[in-house]
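Give me structure tokens for this 404-residue protein.
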Amino acid sequence: MTDFSLDLNEDQIQIQKWVHDFAEGVVRPAAHEWDEREETPWPIIEEAAKIGLYSFDFLVQAFGDPTGLLMPVVNEELCWGDAGITLAILGSTLAVAGIAANGTPEQLFEWAPQCYGTPDDIKLGAFCVSEPDAGSDVSALKTRAVYDEANDEWVINGTKSWITNGGIAHTHVVVASVVPELGSRGQASFVVPEGTPGLSMGQKFKKMGIRASHTAEVIFDDCRVPGRCLLGGKEKLDERLARAREGKKSTSQAAMATFEATRPAVGAQALGIARAAYEYALDYSKERKTFSRPIAEHQGIAFKLADMKTRIDAARLLVWRASWMGATKKPFLAGEGSMSKLFAGETAVWVTEQAIQIMGGYGYVREHPVERWHRDSKIYTIFEGTSEIQRLVIARAVTGLHIR
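Here you go.
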């Protein structure tokens, strides 16, 4: 087992600097424009693809890091630049995580590269779970997949909501109910390839934050996909359904297997936003003067900065621990993955609010980026499991009780 260490190795440090330079030189200067436009920043994704940052090969390298720390480092540095653009660049990662968590190795290496394409022909991936009436309650999904044995096809019907890259992605990974009476244990994941008839985009959402990231409904209307698009295969699904019918314990569920793998990385994104706001407020407080002295010399401001820095560092420790545990296959016994996402998300909201308070009126106007960072931060207490759901996971883990 790889020992846990807070010291990044030379390769990790070099990649951290490489990503930070991209965030500083390309992402941050473009952030305000794409936030105002509320459109997918294709030119930025193209730049990321040219240098190899937006690619399946880089994702394999990041996820393959034996310490587990490279992926959160990359997420933090990119979000330090801008969260909306980061999600536009990394949104396809969630689709790949869905394939990796539920599919066979052959399916991963067939479909995952198609979520990225090439620098000359960029593609996007989307992971479709949430529905208009089923967000935190994954067991309530109504999207249905029915097997047509005569044609070895699955027929998918339903509507997914709040989907990153939804409808514009070239590869959609969708979680659907196969046996509704079994709840979440009767669900499976499917790849819906580009150009599949019956797949369309519903409404595109206009959001408070992360506005450079495309979020929309995805509609499946008698959408037929070949049998090989069932992640994990029919035999594995039948075995899992048989165990569920017999009341035996299930090793994984289609949606939750993906979320468990991605929550620490999402926490790292929130961490990047918080760090950006803290650094900006720190610099401002050293330059801005009141009563003939920098406002950082006033305890009211200095103590805010101290608390901001403390919470950011504590969040990073939780994120790194959970990432290391995931990479080394160490079991989450107390909801460590949820702890990291919960604390980092709420830290981002709190830190960005304090940054606005430190800057006063200047923090509230769009001339400065802290108001955008505050808007961006709020989603990290909502998507990929709300703060309330994270607390539920943690509470169940530490008590051993089925808390509702």
